[in-house]
Design goal:
FAD/NAD(P)-binding domain; D-Amino Acid Oxidase, Chain A, domain 2; 3-stranded antiparallel sheet; globular; binds flavin-adenine dinucleotide
């Protein structure tokens, strides 16, 4: 993984699996693959009824909650809402959110590489926002390596990039790659359209309500620059699972005591990740020359401190 600071990318930070004594620093899985595999796995689990369509009209009663689905009404002792940043369940439960828009949009798209990406993720902090190129499995059509772009750009820049189109963006990215010591993957070619996603930070004031728990983006949305949003949601699920498995025999799984345990266990990790991503987003959004110089120095200093880098890496990959 290579992180390039501003000032022409001269300030850089390198992380390697070898130096960190791990098999790999991270695993990149495309969303559609994740959804496909989870969908298949759900089909093999007895007790899972899959209903394609939206759930609505959730009502929490004393010993269970009810809701409507396209297959008719359903009831459950515990409803886990994983319905995303705009969570209709969260709204129906009257849980308010705090947050702020970043005034940025993420431009997302896939690009084919002329050279091997060597499993390296590259990120550049530029005057036009944060550009990340993440290595994908080889493009099935012609076996070339491919990368996925996440470019968090100020609103006006994002609009301009969308207007220019994927081919022009490929040219910009190729120039960025060749100006730094990232693997020589250029010239890049576009593999499809660009998509634009508005970026905001958002936190639900509560993660639980009667007979309901929020997980994932329904509970918290963070800036994508550290690639940790889904990981945070998966950790919610893991914690909720652990709390439910360890419950006392006299409690049912929607017991308010269990839900509070879950909420308490997630408070600190969510706060820490939100603080880290928001702090980085603000630090690299500041164009004052003194700040630019300081963060460049910070990146170079960090690159020369292997123990601190290892600690940072362990934290980013979900270790202790
Ligand atoms: C540009 C960008 C790049 C990112 N990159 C990374 C990354 O590299 N790594 C990482 O960990 N995270 C990343 N994230 C964050 C990650 O995408 C989100 O954190 C993650 O998708 C949240 O998952 P979720 O299941 O909570 O919500 P979502 O992915 O939003 O899924 C919610 C689902 O609920 C469904 N739904 C909504 N309402 C209902 C209803 N009433 N009934 C039934 N279903 C409903 C929706 O259709 C949707 O399928 C990135 C985010 C962005 C914007």
């Amino acid at each position: 993984m290579r992180v390039h600071g501003d000032a022409g990318g001269r300030a850089a930070l390198h992380f390697g699996a070898y130096a960190s004594a791990v098999e790999r620093l991270a695993t990149i899985v495309e969303h559609r693959e994740l959804a496909r595999v989870l969908g298949t796995a759900a089909g093999y689990f007895p007790g899972i009824e899959r209903i394609d369509g939206f759930a609505s009209q959730i009502v929490a009663l004393a010993d269970h909650a009810t809701f409507s689905t396209e297959a008719g009404p359903r009831g459950a002792r515990l409803v886990v809402a994983a319905d995303g940043a705009r969570s209709p369940t969260r709204d129906a439960l009257g849980i308010a959110t705090d947050g702020k828009p970043y005034g940025q949009r993420a431009i997302v798209g896939n690009f084919g590489c002329a050279g091997p990406h060597a499993g390296t993720a590259s990120q550049w902090f530029t005057d036009d926002g944060v550009v990340a190129l993440l290595p994908l499995a080889a493009d099935r059509r012609d076996e070339r390596d491919a990368v996925s772009l996440v470019w968090s750009a100020p609103d006006a820049t994002a609009d301009r990039l969308i207007d220019e189109g994927p081919r022009a963006v490929a040219v910009r990215l190729s120039a960025l790659v060749s100006s730094s010591d990232a693997p020589a993957i250029g010239p890049l070619t576009s593999l499809g359209p660009l998509v634009k996603v508005p970026l905001a930070m958002q936190t639900a004031r509560r993660m639980v309500a009667d007979r309901c728990a929020l997980v994932g983006d329904a509970a918290h949305v963070i800036h994508p620059l550290a690639g940790q949003g889904l990981n945070l949601g998966l950790a919610d699920v893991e914690t909720l699972f652990d709390v439910l498995v360890a419950r006392e025999s006299f409690r049912d799984c929607g017991d308010v005591v269990l839900l509070r345990r879950y909420e308490r266990a997630r408070a600190e990790p969510v706060l820490a990740m939100r603080g880290m991503t928001d702090g980085l987003a603000r630090l690299f959004d500041d164009a004052r020359p003194g700040v630019v110089r300081l963060r460049g120095l910070g990146l170079c200093a960090l690159d020369r401190l292997p123990p601190l880098k290892r600690l940072l890496m362990r934290h980013a990959s979900g270790g202790a």
